[in-house]
Amino acid sequence: MNTLGRCLRLSTFGESHGVLIGGVLEGVPAGLKIDLDALQAEVNRRKSTNAYTTPRKEEDVVEVVSGVFEGVSTGAPIGLLIYNRNVKSKDYSNVKEAFRPGHADFTALAKYGVRDYRGGGRTSARESVARVAGGAIAKMLLKELGIEVFSGVFSVGGIEAQNIDFSHAKTSPIFSLDKDIEPTQQEAILKAKAEGDSVGGVVLVQASGAHLLGLGEPLYDKLDARLGGVFMGLNGVKGMFIGEPSVASLRGSAYNDPLSPTGFQSNHAGGVLGGIGSGADLVIWVHFKPTASIAKAQDTINTNNKPLKLELKGRHDPCIAIRGSVVCESLLALVVADFALLNMPTKLSSVRAFYRQR
Amino acid sequence: MNTLGRCLRLSTFGESHGVLIGGVLEGVPAGLKIDLDALQAEVNRRKSTNAYTTPRKEEDVVEVVSGVFEGVSTGAPIGLLIYNRNVKSKDYSNVKEAFRPGHADFTALAKYGVRDYRGGGRTSARESVARVAGGAIAKMLLKELGIEVFSGVFSVGGIEAQNIDFSHAKTSPIFSLDKDIEPTQQEAILKAKAEGDSVGGVVLVQASGAHLLGLGEPLYDKLDARLGGVFMGLNGVKGMFIGEPSVASLRGSAYNDPLSPTGFQSNHAGGVLGGIGSGADLVIWVHFKPTASIAKAQDTINTNNKPLKLELKGRHDPCIAIRGSVVCESLLALVVADFALLNMPTKLSSVRAFYRQR
Amino acid sequence: MNTLGRCLRLSTFGESHGVLIGGVLEGVPAGLKIDLDALQAEVNRRKSTNAYTTPRKEEDVVEVVSGVFEGVSTGAPIGLLIYNRNVKSKDYSNVKEAFRPGHADFTALAKYGVRDYRGGGRTSARESVARVAGGAIAKMLLKELGIEVFSGVFSVGGIEAQNIDFSHAKTSPIFSLDKDIEPTQQEAILKAKAEGDSVGGVVLVQASGAHLLGLGEPLYDKLDARLGGVFMGLNGVKGMFIGEPSVASLRGSAYNDPLSPTGFQSNHAGGVLGGIGSGADLVIWVHFKPTASIAKAQDTINTNNKPLKLELKGRHDPCIAIRGSVVCESLLALVVADFALLNMPTKLSSVRAFYRQR
Amino acid sequence: MNTLGRCLRLSTFGESHGVLIGGVLEGVPAGLKIDLDALQAEVNRRKSTNAYTTPRKEEDVVEVVSGVFEGVSTGAPIGLLIYNRNVKSKDYSNVKEAFRPGHADFTALAKYGVRDYRGGGRTSARESVARVAGGAIAKMLLKELGIEVFSGVFSVGGIEAQNIDFSHAKTSPIFSLDKDIEPTQQEAILKAKAEGDSVGGVVLVQASGAHLLGLGEPLYDKLDARLGGVFMGLNGVKGMFIGEPSVASLRGSAYNDPLSPTGFQSNHAGGVLGGIGSGADLVIWVHFKPTASIAKAQDTINTNNKPLKLELKGRHDPCIAIRGSVVCESLLALVVADFALLNMPTKLSSVRAFYRQR
């Protein structure tokens, strides 16, 4: 339920304004060097406090409380705790009884009958800090297999990159993929923010490495099925494509990727054929909605079904796609690493080789 | 692995050109009347042989071999067998050693080291007949809860419906949602077919019913996460949206659905808020790629990595989105029914009521 | 729910007096030669119709309907169907409304509200034919790893073997482990049968092979946890031990198995230490209750809660432990094979080696 | 892997001598009052430091870090942290390279290639503190359903209770079920301890309540299957019975429990028929081995396969069955509560009633 993956499994717990956010990562092969600095650096990348993101100042210190001994993974579950330091005991009176439009307030109360009204509780995107921590360890594993993951912001409020440059995205304050378009995108974000509004965006996430070939499990746990599950289930995501987004308008003769002795001649399929990694780059487009929390007055109701106008104050990202891109990258790392482990017992020849060499 | 769902679970087995396609549906509450005619009718709807689909003539007779006694479900797993009657012992020599572009041939051989080259084997969309059979039973369960599912073809090769009419889709030979646009869509299909080519398409799938409110499980099994998993994992699907497809270009003030005492005033969210059903219609757009099997000559390689030109003869749908829409509808029924059952122990008050009334 | 295992998974469906018993075995590594004769021979061994077992004459022909192509496993789920040929349309009137003592009649009706009264329906031990078919394939896989499984009947009605001889058990009509005690055990069975009664028994199941070392997954899926789940969950089993049965009366100094440079000096632990295979033989004692179906008159009630005397006619084993031993052996094979596959991604060095050699 | 249960799920992490032991309990119905004092009291009961148990002085303070808001469960996962306060930075040199007989040292190193030699690491029984914390919350849920769980020590080193008195067990320092036999049992423990040895024991665990009727899921997740999995998987457990332990020596006419209009006339089956709760008391006998850690010199080897004599100093229970009984009780509570929730969607009539009353 609160778990992602089958062999490499991330489970999380904790609420936005509770004591902490926790993650438990199981199935990390024993003997992996755990680089605590790299782990913290990933978490910091998600935090990225600047004019385009959130002014909520979290320390976000990751504590590794289990599963690592003398610097390496032991095969036991790795416990990751991120205490919430900056939880203001603020006044929740305006949201305690009102349903914020675009949030889970209404649906969560309907489902559970009780609601943690402090910042969305369990449904808050703050939980993603545990995904990023888990993803950081997944990346350490992928590095051993020569697989890399990348991400960046492709569009903001409809303003699209013209060139894709993942190395620029790494240093951009909005993780923009295009240095030339970036100023226009930044302007759009600041304008929306100034008007008490927010903007949506599209994130591009990729993985590359020869060992992507063959990843994906049969039939209801295909590579694309799992990617669909993790990305569509991420807070704020409402759409996605794997490979060429105009796919549904194309003809087969234009869309199919021809094979040649040196490999695929194009990659419209985005690295997945028949639910299995083709060895070509995994290419995923993730569509984020505009941040639900806006300062502008909105029509809503309270828990007594009375209408009201709600203006939200607080520390909200004007564009969740920005920090969302880091989370997407982490999720892709977790998924690919899980499939890399699941793939090992697929062929009898591999099983034989494994047991012969022990 | 080959299983969909957690409480209501569909597992399938069987290959396109093997003995049969089988499905096992577990978790159907005991006492549900199983209407065998309705079950067969759903399977027939997927078959729909006409000029726009496939000339492969399968009888597709569903046999219920377990789990039903004296007309009702017993709580035991329901076994569903569909024997393959029309498996021609044809000549596979041209595909046996060639990788068909756009198919799982290359990736499946890389993964498994062996390949059932007869019509794609396990990776063929023929497996979806078991999903439709399972979905038919899910619909019988949903009917008890007042939930309905619908589907139709929105666009074909980029030609989009201007009006959405699910009742028209039911009788249209291409399940088109728009009576006026339908002829143009049909023409596009026949033109591609005549040219030995294929077209992509977009399917719209919906569910409605008050009890959609509250469906969806926490955090890695949200309603949208699961929908992402089943639709992105369906053969030929490469993209999807839940709710408004232009979401990433919008501002929060335009996208958020305001609440009023009589309900949501719009449904850009497509019926899912925070991963939980909002009670508004579930609205899902599913982007299908053009059929991979085309008659036109394509560049590819054989299993010895030698280049060749491949022309596929055979009984292929020129547009997989058409019959795919029926499968999408079945999948949505399976997902929603599963969540409806999973939802029951969510609140202590419900648990108490259940055990008090026994 | 109806599935056993995590990587190698057996799911079953079908009822005792329904159309068929079905099994689906997933996760068999691709490229395993499937010996259909050996598969059928295992199923025949479970059938073993003689004076000490059941006169129900089932053909028990196993049909492999998927997952095997040109003699080897393909990685796709292997469908195994055993049609019920000898289902008499007999008169069920005396059991239709009466609850047979010792059976699931009362509890299943309470749980499901409907009941398949024909021979116990889904709860019948007839389902175990699918476990034996699946186990036969698991054995083929284990053979590749040098692991063997054995079973035999240790005691019948309290009459215990004095010597353990698995090779004798193979040819004994009651699978007895002791040639000298066997006649007394047979006598006890026939005497009980003649008196319209039944007897309990204890089965010994073992596995041996160097690669048992290291099998077992962490903490709630340990080797002994899984063995506990499959054996305690088998029809008619009410108790079990792993290793020395007098364990609870012993002192640590007598019970602990000392280690020496040549291995363990004893095997009180029965091959499991800390939930992980020690490399020593797996030794499991399984306690079966006497067959619930007896001809003697028994007090019971009907579905209207009226008392009655019930005398059961029919084709019942006087001692279910006999044929149960074959099922235990199959279950052990399935469990060990599953753990052998799950074990592969445990160490980083193995993961590295796997991906380096691809 | 590190998770127990399907609807009510407990996952744990943390090592014996690491930072903390953590538990995450998912699926607790929203709205359950969480009594923090009762939670701590259960954990204290497991700790029970006295002459017959361990001198390791742990504070064992349980912190609830998520899933509870304003005193009630919210439906979010409940995080339970127990920090290890009394972890001496002691000298591990004598165990660091030696394999302790009866422990997981040898097998865990073989499996993982690395070993946390501090007190057994993840394989230590210290992890059970998280099971007891989770079990305490399960008990709060069971109380709502009128189900109670009990436990006590039946025998120690072969010295068996003659009477079963669960109320005495509650106050006994060794949780003994028989006040009269208790002194002899205590003497046996102290004698073994004085001799640097340990003793095994048998624990009796029971549950009672009308709503046990019908609990248990089909076929590989029966009530007895799950009980087998959790008890056989508990540290130190090597055998178990459900109901009458002499079952395998009895005849059917003596073993079967006759039904009468007022219920079962005996309970040899221990409350489980056909894998489903019969409504009679659940009766489970759990056989614990003697504590593996003893002070007496034992033959073993070191990691270089050299023989040596090992004498273990440290804070060990002379009889793990004593504190083990508390853990058994917690596990039974967790299992029964999980099945109580899983049982809700079994019948269509219940599903209908649930959705009608919403």
TrEMBL record, chains A, B, C, D:
Belongs to the chorismate synthase family. HAMAP family: Chorismate_synth (MF_00300). FMN binds at R122, T123, S124, N235, G236, G274, K289, P290, T291, A292, S293, R315. Reduced FMN (FMNH(2)). It comes from Helicobacter gastrofelis. Pathway: Metabolic intermediate biosynthesis; chorismate biosynthesis; chorismate from D-erythrose 4-phosphate and phosphoenolpyruvate: step 7/7. This is Chorismate synthase. NCBIfam families: aroC, PRK05382.1. Keywords: Amino-acid biosynthesis, Aromatic amino acid biosynthesis, FAD, Flavoprotein, FMN, Lyase, NADP. Homotetramer. The lineage of its organism: Bacteria, Pseudomonadati, Campylobacterota, Epsilonproteobacteria, Campylobacterales. This reaction introduces a second double bond into the aromatic ring system. Its cofactor is FMNH2. Its EC number is 4.2.3.5. It catalyses: 5-O-(1-carboxyvinyl)-3-phosphoshikimate = chorismate + phosphate. The keyword Lyase applies. It is an enzyme of class 4 (lyase). NADP(+) binds at R46. SUPFAM superfamilies: Chorismate synthase, AroC (SSF103263).
